Amino acid sequence: MEQIQSSKNKGEAVFWSHLGKIYKQKSLPFSKLKVGDVVLTDKENISNELYEHYMEQFKPPLLDFTNTHDMEIMKEFEEILKGLSTSTEEVEVTNTSEIRNAIRSLKPKKSAGYDNISNFIIKRLPPGYIQGLGNCFNLWLKECRMPNEWKLAKIKTLNKLKAGVPKSDQTRPISLLATHSKLYEKILLTRIRSWAESNHIIPKEQSGFRPNCLIPTRVLSIYQEVLNNMAANSPTLSIYFDYQKAYDKVWHAALIVKLSRANIPSALLKTIWFWLSMREAVVVYGELSTIFHSDIVRQTGAFSTHIFADDLNVLISAPLGKKLEPMLQFLELEGTK
């Protein structure tokens, strides 16, 4: 309580930050892993089991070759890739000022990816390093690519259980990428966000990963909508969606097709596809496991959260009846806008 009281004098934001750290539940370490009725205790066996589990989990979605829609998407996707291979467009280059601001925005964490370079180290590099980094970034922006080494995710596993021996599906994967890739993503994000906002790609109701658009603001707007309907003696239907493992299971080919249909600049689309393709991961538990191909995308990155919006609320006020069936056509129409 003394910590809470002392932090309260530092301002509201700092107070709630301190309060969150004090009451935040920590993940318990685990030295055993349950597989069926067997409990594994050997580190190598646990590492291999986690490797097999996450390699299976992060496999790309299977295509249904008998589905006409899937085949049409794949055909369009292949045509898009042919066009991108001959495209000469370039992404807008960056400068030392933009990179410096991106470095300032990093949290001083000491956790690191496969290259063992943390945010803490990056924030303490001399100014001359930023100029060299800018030269590299500009070369890659012009070529619509990034180093393949940045696509390797180091997966650390956390225990979801508060007690007992966890199973593989009761662990939470935390994927860590190279810190330099975070800076590069921030540079790309400004270009993608500028295109999306200027072309009104993202609906105004979308919150959570946009500047000055907080989730509490959206919650208040939903609450106000319900109050307005109650005042008019009208019921409200609200449907909430949370797509399971959206960052791991989104069909990348369909995503590229959708962005292409939205008329995203070819240079940005080419860079996004390079960013998505040929990703790899390695599970860390004691020793490193074998590297495997993966469609995993780091969920904590600003770039990935902008592309993979996995929470949806559909608020319907009219037409509304006692049964859901008459509204299906209306929901289909609204959901495909």
UniProtKB/TrEMBL annotation:
Name the record gives this protein: Reverse transcriptase domain-containing protein
Domain Reverse transcriptase: 166-310
Pfam families from the UniProt entry: RVT_1
Organism: Rotaria magnacalcarata
Region forming the signal peptide: none
